[in-house]
Amino acid sequence: MNIDEKYLLRCIELGKNALGIAAPNPMVGSIIVHNDKIVGEGYTSVYGGAHAEVNAIQSVKDKASLTLSTLYVTLEPCSHYGKTPPCANLIIENQIPRVVIGITDPHIKIAGKGIEKLRNAGCKVIVGVLEKECREHHRRFLTFQEKKRPYIILKWAETMDGFIAPNASERNNGIEPFWISNTYSRQLVHQWRSEEQAILVGTNTVREDNPKLNIRDWTGKSPFRIVLDSNLSLPENAAVFNDSSKTMVIHDKNFQKKSPEHPVYEAIDFKQNVPEQICEVLFEHQIASVIIEGGLQTLQSFIDKSLWDEARIFKGVSQFKKGIEAPKISGNPLQTKTILTDTLTILRND
What we know:
Residues 2-126 form the CMP/dCMP-type deaminase domain. The chain is α/β, with parallel strands linked by helices and 350 residues long. The protein has helices spanning 3-15, 52-59, 87-93, 113-120, 131-137, 139-147, 183-195, 203-209, 274-284, 296-304, and strands at 29-34, 37-43, 70-75, 98-103, 124-127, 151-158, 163-165, 198-201, 224-228, 247-252, 264-268, 289-294, 310-315, 324-325, 332-339, 342-348. The two termini are 26 Å apart.
């Protein structure tokens, strides 16, 4: 590993701090090195705030040293005016002579223009350092930009004998979740919710479990809740409609929303290509990542269309012998770990 790769690794580490706060912006990390010493660091602020390069430059105490420094960044500096001024302009204004970039930005407004602007101003620009690692780090943003859909994470818990829920007769009285995974696994799920922009469930999951779909066992911002309710049959007092987070209802185009006081409503045609249409709606709403937590029909529909990027599957120790079978899925195993009595398997759809 050469010195540029070493410093890019630090940028990736920094960028992870923006997970859950920067989206739909990418979680960029940036450092500034002077005389083989890191003199400035930064990562993308909460959406609408300063970008990583700005934060890194502002953190440098001796601004005069910038003219003899190298700026490292995981993603090409922006070159256009958005919610903030172009980062490329700031780099040029501070006369930073050398810039090392992990990957180019595929965004239509950038796509090499930031690199071109820097080079035209006399900066020495190196692109493609730790490209594979930077693409992995920016996988949510790249999926959104290149595939025009959110990064999709499927999540469920299944019993040792392969069921995600018991028969209705085996449930406790009342509408509530039937837990398969243990407390520590459930806390991890709340951490995951804090890291992604949105969470999606089908009608039956809301009707049978009445989930809140917010964050309770972790700190952070609750995800944007998305509920599939084709004929608008869910009760208005369902927990997903409380004030703990915003909610979108995706319904069939043949049904009219109940009242203007209800959450955001989006209509699609539930008779064809439902997963694709859902992705189109989420893309239009600038949602770069979503966790799909159920139920079986919803999960399987995305699997069958190969519209998923990760699957995170808990296997508990209980057995139902009968009930609702777990989704059928195949993918490339990325990780397997034990969480007390549970086994977590993470698959990638590569």
